[in-house]
Amino acid sequence: MALDPRTPVVVGAGQYLHRAEGIDDALQPVDLMVEAVRAAADDAGTTKVISGAQSWRTVMLLSWRYRDPSALVAARLGVQPRETVYTTAGGNTPQSLVNATAAEIQSGDLDCAVLMGGEAWRTRMRARRADATLMWDKQADEVVPTRVFGAEMSMSHPYELARGVVMPVQVYPMFETALRAERGESVDAHQVRASELWARFSAVAADNPYAWVRDQKSAEEIRTPSPSNRMIGMPYPKLMNSNNDVDMAAALILCSVEKARELGVAEDRWVFLHSGTDAHDTEFVSNRADLHSSPAIRAAGRQAMDLAGKGADDFAHVDLYSCFPSAVQIGAEELGFGLDRDLTVTGGLCFAGGPWNNYVTHSIATMVERVRDDPGSFGFVSANGGYVTKHAFGVYSTTPPADGLRTAHPQDEVDALPSRELAEDWQGEATVEGYTVMHDRDGNPETAFAACLLADGRRTWAVGHDAGIAHAMTEGEWVGQTVRIGPEAELVA
User: Fold this and answer.
1) Structural element, H or E, at residue 292
2) Which residues 6+ apart lie within 8 Å of 63 measured at CB?
3) CA angle, residues 276, 355, 161, in degrees to nearest 5
4) Element (H, E) at 427
5) How many CA atoms lie within 13 A of 275 on its CB side?
6) Region class of 428: left (phi > 0), else alpha (psi between -120 and 50), else beta
7) How far apart are the first and last CA of the chain?
8) Helical packing angle, 168-183 and 187-206, nearest 10°
9) How far apart are alpha carbons 276 and 283 in whole angstroms?
10) Is the Cβ–Cβ distance between 22 and 261 less than 8 Å?
11) What integer is the mean pLDDT of 19-24?
12) Fewest CB within 10 A of the end CB: N or C in the chain?
């Protein structure tokens, strides 16, 4: 069929890892991104895609605070782009950025863009431990990108912050225990099942040349605490947690069909985005209807499939956002993917690497390679920011979409669904809905956190600072148990 010249295509995808021996030979994030962009141009088959890119767009970095990293990368590559873009935070951002960029290309507002992200958190932490100063680029305060992409969202309620419920390593384990109870599984059986899921992710990473951890882990290794796999937030040992201790970058180059032809990109490099959707769950976990589902994934993810004319069984390749096992299980359930099938093309954020907001740029880059190697197949990518909060989805194929790119934002549908009220400063009895026990670096139970439901349906939070309570909550199943909450949300023995 004749292609609309405005049809957006991914023409280049590049990834770059740097395993520095120390601090002096490490690369700063902009230099990691330079290498990723060069790799993406090599993948496209021409450096003209670099000089032809009008817009340079960077996913927010956390390992180093540049004012306008896109400008630095473009300058290193000898380009003066029409605009530079920097995003707000969120692991959903790379797919959201692809969706928006592709829509701009289709509408005629843009012909070619570079999308990228990179982190050097491994080096940043090494420097901190060594009390070393990193001589990386700093931009003057007056330097700003042409525009900022994405809306800021505070994903922690002030009451959650006051109770210390602030980190993904605390919240995702609570989702896991809520999932376990919803499935009616025993503690041990559920841990085996989650570890077997994660072992399959490890096996994919072992075959991924751009994965950070390539030594394959067994399910038993993953679920068994050890000196190298200490328990962090029960039921997650280290090998069930996202791994941000990486130095890595990825880049994508998107063009219109017309521009791709003008730049001389061979058609066998073209990958089409058939559909892209975005939505978010309640801003605060306190207001979720439950801790084991995601209405936004269900609405937006399934709409992405519908817009592409596909069902869950039609995707040969899938990459579900995988910061923790609970995220994968929630996503798979809402999207209709069985847990017994391959749900990652990279190996996930624990094994392939979790470079903060930028993991999904890596997953899209890998998906581009997968669908090229399997012409005519379809790939599905999901992205998640916050605590299963912000979501974006994309459908990819070498087969062009019959009706062009289709995008949607079904937020009104999600917002109309039931939610819960937060009960602040509750004292009295409550029922545990989901919980975790944080452990110290020696593997000792330290602090318990619990999301609890009241008789009137509201949710509240409880924290057990007492070592005896924390230890007790590591034994048996506590979801469904009645507990007492005292002043300052303290769990009472």
Assistant:
1) none
2) 29, 119, 120, 121, 123, 124, 356
3) 90
4) none
5) 24
6) left
7) 70
8) 120
9) 21
10) no
11) 96
12) N
pLDDT in tens, 277-299: 999 999 999 999 999 999 999 99
- pTM of whole model > 0.85? yes
Q: Where are the alpha helices (DSSP H) in 184-218?
A: 187-206
| Angle subtended at Cα 173 by Cα 191 and Cα 382, rounded to the nearest 5 degrees | 95
Which residues, at least 6 apart from 46, have a Cβ–Cβ distance to it below 8 Å? 263, 264, 265
- Cβ(396)–Cβ(379) under 8 Å? yes
Q: What angle do CA 295, 335, 291 make, to 5 degrees?
A: 40
Cis peptide bond upstream of 325, omega within 30? no
Q: Which is it for strands 83-87 and 147-149: parallel, antiparallel or unpaired?
A: parallel
Q: What is the pLDDT of residue 1?
A: 63
Which has the closest alpha carbon to 312: 329, 340, 332? 332
Q: Which residue's entry shows tokens 């995808």?
A: 13
Question: Residue 2: pLDDT band by 50, 70, 90 thresholds?
Answer: confident
Which residues fall within 8 angstroms of residue 338, CB to CB, at 6 or more apart?
332
- What is the C-alpha separation between 485 and 493, in angstroms, rounded? 9
Q: Please, which contacts does 464-470 make with residues 24 or more away whose CB atoms are closer than 8 Å?
A: 464/490, 464/491, 465/490, 466/491, 466/493, 468/493, 469/493, 470/437, 470/438, 470/445, 470/446
Rounded to an integer, the average pLDDT of 358-370 is 98
Question: What are the tokens at 55?
Answer: 């817009």
* Cα→Cα distances 177→35, 148, 186, 265, Å: 41, 37, 10, 49
Q: Which of 66, 80, 81 is nearest to 31 (CA)?
A: 66
The CA radius of gyration of the chain, in Å to the nearest whole number, is 23
DSSP string, 316-363: SEEE---SSHHHHHHHHHHHT--TTS---SS-HHHHT---GGGHHHHH
DSSP conformational letter for 313: G
Transcribe 268-290 into DSSP letters: GG-EEEEEEEEEE--SSGGG-S-
The answer to whether 10 and 114 have CB atoms below 8 angstroms apart is no
What residues have CB less than 8 Å from 301, skipping those under 6 apart?
277, 331, 334, 335, 382, 391, 393
